[in-house]
Amino acid sequence: MIDSHCHIAGPEFVDDLDDVIARAIAAGLTHALVILAADDQPELDQANTVASRWSGVRFSIGVHPHAAGKFSAEPEAAARAVGAAIDVQPLTRGLGEIGLDYHYDFSPRDVQQAVFRSQIGLARERRLPIVIHTREADDDTFRILAEENASAGPVILHCFTGDRDAARRALDAGYYLSLAGIVTFPRALELQEVARLVPLDRLLVETDSPFLAPPPHRGKRNEPAHVSRVAEVIAELKGITRDEVAFVTAENFVRIFAP
Fold it and tell me: Domain range spanning residue 57?
């Protein structure tokens, strides 16, 4: 099993990183894609510690839309920062998470869009899969992805929370959907319908640790071992076994990220 999106190079895991990794391996995880922020040097530095403790770790690096405002004077500088971080991290296998977030609007929307475009261009240049964050911005996200020809390579909509129409739109574009702990929440009925809808060959599972822990851990720090519960719930919704979900999502991950 593979956690396709987590943040275990963050400060939340510094004190007990070895225990977190041990629990992940005990839960059957072989790999995890750890997301790094190109504008966060402590996190980039901690990535080397994480990699030294777990050989199954790979990385994806980007500038999150929340941080896009740092590059308002020169959006292309965001892509340069990402490129520089990739150059010194040989275990990089993806670019992201990048995208648009109109829920918090921590950065001006026009700046978010310009920074997003610059990073898609870098992903095409480096031939890297793109990990997308989109919140209350689906129309602009899909439009920019199409205009920038992002589907020339794999595109993953991480922590997908859209409805059936958004899921079909993403699948029609050739994108992958990655489902996180939200799908396990009892009231997430619409997302559970999406889980039934998405074909197995377009599905990934993730934790988005330290966020969105599934029951019975809800409200506590999430960690990669809990991706097993995400797979269990998806299996129940699809009427198959957890092992089948684990196997096919791991195959998808290997196909996309070549870990």
Answer: 2-257
